[in-house]
Design a protein that fits this description.
It is built from 10 helices and 10 strands. The chain is of the alpha/beta class. The chain is globular.
Length: 289
């Protein structure tokens, strides 16, 4: 069965739009885009369209590639201080001369809708009632729960250890009482782990990393990888695929996400939800007692 993230994301977006309308909210998302990377600009446009759909205002901060670290931090501070901004999104990656971690940690934890601030990651690691968690991992857990997939006691293999996806998702799986193995590019004999797994989640960006001979019957597959491969039949000359050999692995899987249409839409849906949640939280905090 397909884990249809596109369908669920649209349902969530409709629910969020209703919340904004019924509660007469005016949520604002500050978006910082540094440089002119085509992929980053594309992702920002997608996020802005989704914001428009549900009623979230965008406060755009478009900055040159040459911006200094101090100048960028100053822009983050301006959004932190702006009462019309409920959430702050810093589109990654940042230029190489910028200390990404320092910039992300400058975002106030209560406005950190991407969930990358060390305080929010710490709350997740300790399972201490985390408020804002990274969007892609949060979307994956929400998608699995939508299909009534019980994670407790399952053997889960997370392939990929990035601070944005792999590490926080491994923590979330652990917090759901799964037994988690975290694999990565230095793992020897990846198949030794994947063959035993009830759930495999891959976020490496490598075509055909997970093949049918590496999984058992009935496995649950979540493919977060995004890769472009040449395809002369497509107008743009390529098509998008994940890390998993979808056509062959789907014959053995009980559940599997498509690429595209699986995890990607859920990431944006969670960003929208976090912005509205932050708006509600900040409104309540700032209301007179």
């Amino acid at each position: 069965m397909l884990l249809n993230g596109k369908q669920l994301a649209q349902k969530i977006r409709s629910e969020l739009k209703n919340i904004v309308t019924k509660k007469n909210l005016n949520p604002g998302l500050g978006i910082i885009l540094v440089g002119e990377r085509v992929d980053s600009a594309t992702y920002v446009r997608m996020k802005k369209r989704a914001c428009d759909e549900v009623g979230i205002r965008n406060i755009d901060v478009m900055l040159p590639e040459t911006i200094t670290q101090d100048e960028l931090i100053s822009k983050v501070d301006e959004l932190n201080d702006n009462v019309l901004v409920d959430g702050i999104l810093i589109q990654l990656p940042l230029p190489k001369h910028i200390d990404e971690r320092e910039v992300l940690n400058r975002v106030l934890p209560e406005k950190d809708v991407d969930g990358f601030n060390a305080i929010n990651i710490g709350s997740l690691a300790l399972n201490d009632n985390p408020k804002l968690t990274p969007c892609t991992p949060t979307g994956v857990i929400r998608l699995l729960k939508e299909y009534d997939i019980d994670l407790e006691g399952k053997d889960a293999v997370m392939v990929g250890r990035s601070n944005i996806v792999g590490m926080p998702l491994a923590l979330m799986l652990k917090n759901e009482n799964a037994t988690v193995t975290l694999c990565h590019s230095r793992t020897k004999d990846l198949s030794m782990y994947t063959k035993q797994a009830d759930i495999i989640i891959s976020a490496c960006g490598k075509v055909n990393l997970i093949t049918a001979d590496m999984v058992k019957e009935g496995v649950i597959i979540v493919d977060i990888g995004i890769n472009s491969v040449p395809d002369a039949t497509r107008k743009r000359g390529y098509r998008l695929v994940g890390d998993v050999d979808f056509e062959n692995v789907k014959e053995k899987a009980s559940f599997i996400t498509p690429v595209p249409g699986g995890v990607g839409p859920m990431t944006i849906a969670m960003l929208l939800k976090h912005t509205i949640d932050s708006n509600l939280s900040l409104v309540n905090t700032n209301s007179p007692s």
